[in-house]
Write a structure and sequence with these properties.
With 254 residues, the chain is of the alpha/beta class. It has 8 helices and 10 strands. The longest helix has 17 residues. The protein starts with 7 loop residues before the first helix and ends with a helix.
């Protein structure tokens, strides 16, 4: 059974292994989501740790950043890096993504794309066909931009639902939602400074479903054995990840 990461580096390492497993199982559109405020500010450094792991298994990615500035900065900073990759921006109306994809490209790594770039991301995925696309710390579904109407539902059905979340971690205060492929989605709850696994689900629990899981766990006496509802308890784990999140946010504010 997977355990919550103790810090962001461990979360990324888990995400790398989850991505490798998903790719080996035939998924061609996957994403790694470490949901922390302002994590996109660390996008370049996280990508620099992720790329060597791909190269180790013989994957030569073409790397896409959200805009020309981020792409240019990565090209400059990575001149002396131990890895060599092609770096592009995701495209604009003046420089469409079509022009940035070549027949010889075999693998695409998209870094920190937001819902502003969702149209370009969808187009790239369509152009990629069966070639793998991995999205590192994306935020493609911002309701304020994507919307909640018919067009937004169509976008979710047509594109967003085709992306497999092979790795996901997000804190909800006293609880954490976690998934590390091939394991199912897990809900962990803090008790006395430690986390316990309180539920596993084959699909991502959201909204009311997640709230009910947490509410039931906080009002029911937990035991070390499986409950009749199918929830699973586990050996407690110290809350290292959220402590690291707080340290990360303090560092950003300095």
């Amino acid at each position: 059974m997977n355990k919550l990461p103790n810090d962001i580096d461990e979360a990324l390492a888990q995400g790398i292994e989850a991505a490798k497993a998903a790719l080996q199982d035939g998924y061609s559109r996957i994403q790694i989501e470490i949901v922390i405020p302002e994590i996109e500010l660390q996008a370049q450094s996280l990508a620099a740790k992720f790329i060597p792991a791909l190269l180790e298994v013989g994957i030569q990615p073409k790397v896409f950043f959200p805009d020309t500035g981020a792409a240019a900065l990565a090209r400059r900073d990575w001149q002396e890096a131990p890895f060599k990759v092609k770096v592009e921006d995701i495209g604009t109306s003046r420089s469409p993504v079509d022009s940035k994809i070549a027949p010889e490209d075999e693998f695409f790594l998209l870094i920190a794309l937001s819902s502003v770039e969702v149209a370009q991301a969808e187009k790239l995925c369509n152009l990629a066909g069966d070639r793998p696309v991995v999205m590192l710390i994306p935020k493609l579904e911002d309701i304020s931009i994507v919307g909640i109407g018919y067009a937004a539902r169509q976008l979710r059905e047509r594109f967003l639902k085709t992306i497999e979340s092979c790795y996901y971690i997000k804190s909800f205060g006293e609880a954490a939602l976690y998934r590390c492929y091939p394991s199912p989605w897990q809900v962990w709850l803090e008790e006395n400074g430690q986390y316990k696994l309180i539920a596993e689900r084959p699909e991502k629990p959201m909204g009311d479903t997640l709230e009910i899981i947490i509410a039931q766990a906080t009002t029911t006496v937990q035991t070390d054995s499986s409950t009749s509802s199918g929830q699973t308890t586990a050996k407690p784990q110290r809350k290292g990840f959220l402590a690291e999140v707080q340290k990360f946010l303090r560092a950003l504010s300095n």
